[in-house]
Design a protein that fits this description.
Blueprint: E1 12-19, E2 32-37, E3 40-44, E4 48-49, E5 55-58, E6 62-65, H1 71-82, E7 90-97, E8 102-106, E9 112-116, H2 124-130, E10 141-147, E11 150-155, H3 156-161, E12 174-179, E13 182-188, E14 195-198, H4 205-211, E15 220-232, E16 248-255, H5 262-268, E17 275-281, H6 283-308
Parallel strand pairs: 8-12, 13-17
Antiparallel strand pairs: 1-3, 1-4, 1-7, 2-3, 5-6, 8-9, 10-11, 10-12, 13-14, 15-16, 15-17
Length: 309
């Protein structure tokens, strides 16, 4: 749970004081009076601004420390200060305007909005909604939360689908909506060599192949479909043949699509952001390339000999 919201310099407070009859202390005070409140006398003081030293000024009490306290604690101190001066006083302190406790939301369009933090403890989606939401499609947005030195990010679609990820925010948090679509790069004997974006929660290898136009019949080697990826060391089983201390380890996956059973494997194999997919050329394609080079050199020579004859 978030920490209790504390007041700070710059916040505005509304203070109402009740006295039981006969009201002798605040009865003649030139302030807004509410007569007949529970048979007593209620006086609402002018709105108090917490000064740079963190204090407010209350008549007949003097300076009261407000910064770093809750409204209930401030009310208790005022009430204690009026004991013996007012007739059975009761005090209500309300935060009229929150100037210091807020969550900053940065939209994917570049704008920033301060969302005031209230005692109900705003959740992540509350703050995003109050700031106007994102401009791009939800499945292409990543939400990043910065809390002090801690930074965490997650696809916005995941937060929407899983209520457990809709966490409570703390005053001072920064929420950024980032337009950062996942992408993979396709090379080799596929129908399209390009960087291709995909939405959350991700696509399978079969879908990735389909988005590249599939394997080229006259070039591709179905047994040589490779995926190059930087995997977390903790996700790999057994010893890793890598002497570096980096948490990311280069891994190459190979899938042989000549085996029909591997199509089910490709269907369950999820593509990750920044993956590289490579479709190898068939041996006959490499031979054809060699013959094309030979013919491109030999054909002009033969023509020249024939012309000379």
């Amino acid at each position: 749970m978030p920490a209790q919201q504390d007041l700070a310099a710059g916040d505005l407070l509304d203070i109402t004081i009740w006295e039981a009859p006969p009201a002798v202390l605040f009865g003649g005070l030139q302030a807004e009076s509410l007569s007949g409140a529970a048979g007593g006398h209620a006086t609402q003081l002018p709105t108090q601004v917490i000064d740079a030293q963190g204090n407010i000024m209350v008549p007949f009490v003097g300076r009261v420390r407000a910064a770093g306290r809750s409204v209930a604690q401030v009310a208790a101190e005022i009430s204690q200060g009026l004991n013996g001066k007012a007739n059975r006083p009761q005090v209500l302190v309300r935060l009229a305007q929150n100037q210091t406790s807020f969550v900053t939301v940065i939209s994917d369009a570049g704008g920033a909005t301060r969302v005031p933090f209230t005692p109900k403890s705003e959740r992540l989606l509350d703050a995003i909604s109050s700031a106007g939401g994102g401009k791009q499609q939800l499945d292409k947005l990543t939400v990043q939360i910065t809390r002090g030195n801690l930074v965490r990010s997650m696809p916005l679609s995941t937060v929407i689908k899983d209520p457990r990820q809709n966490i409570r925010l703390f005053p001072g948090d920064t929420v950024a909506l980032l337009f950062k679509p996942n992408t993979f790069v396709a090379f080799g004997a596929s129908g399209k060599n390009d960087e291709i974006s995909f939405e959350e929660p991700g696509i399978s290898l079969t879908q990735a192949l389909a988005r590249t136009g599939g394997l080229l019949d006259n070039r591709a080697d179905p047994s040589g479909v490779f995926v190059f990826r930087m995997e977390r060391r903790s996700a790999l089983a057994g010893d890793v043949a890598d002497s570096s201390e980096s948490q990311l380890v280069p891994v190459i996956y190979r899938i042989d699509l000549r085996d029909p059973g591997n199509y089910f494997l490709a269907r369950s194999f999820k593509m990750h952001d920044q993956d590289i997919m490579y479709v190898a050329n068939a041996p006959i394609a490499d031979l054809q390339k060699f013959l094309n080079v030979v013919f491109s050199v030999a054909y002009p020579v033969v023509n020249s000999i024939n012309a000379f004859k």
